[in-house]
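# nightly structure sweep
# worker-07 picked up a monomer target from the shared queue
# config: single-sequence mode, recycle default, output format = structure tokens
# input follows
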Amino acid sequence: MIRLFVTDIDGCLSEPYRPFALDRFQELALRARQAGRPGDHPYWPALSICSGRPYPYVEAVTQALGLQVPVLFESGAGLFDPVAAAVHWHPAFTEELAQEVEALRHWLTTACLPGTALMLDFGKRTQAGVVGPDTEEIQRLLPIVEAYVATHHPAFHVFHTHISIDIVPKGLTKREGLAWLLEVLGVPAAEAAYIGDSNGDLGALDLVGYAFAPANAAEVVRRQVSRVMPGSDIEGVLAAYHWCAAHNKACRQVVAP
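# output follows
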């Protein structure tokens, strides 16, 4: 049985800088409310989020979907429980890492952003990054950031999408965040599903028993997962969520007396 289904936001629930497909979003919200918490529904798995976005954005999406289980923001460094209305920070985020994040933000602001249309990814506590709609600017900056971080901040990873670069502590990636969420919920990784689209999702996809990608996922993600959905963005998420429900129905029929 698949008890928990976790989705990224950007590249999965929506495409950055584009409107949400509200009719499809409402369908997912309906299923999520039916699912409730892990084990509440006979075949719909509980729905959660694991996103690199900051807390306010993830909290708003959580409320819009009516989720009843904790969700992850800042790539799993933060956990928001919508029922208790409480935020928790991963214990691996230390004061030393916080100081390095501030140093990285200063470097990005002074050495990378001038002369570009990019901006600092505001609102995050545990990671530093830049965002912008110009994919070519992201691609030009990426090797510079990777080289600088490897030399000066080896305790950090660099992840990217076509509109963002994120510098994340190595012990605070989506894999560690998802493991934390599974521990909180008491759900084994083998009974969890995850859908993601970028290289920042690879660790989480490797952790779970059921790994999905939407059709628009990066090639490195498409090669790793066992199931690439035919639809892009939220169409792919809905297809994967329905696949999980069908799988659970089939499992219940097999074990029924």
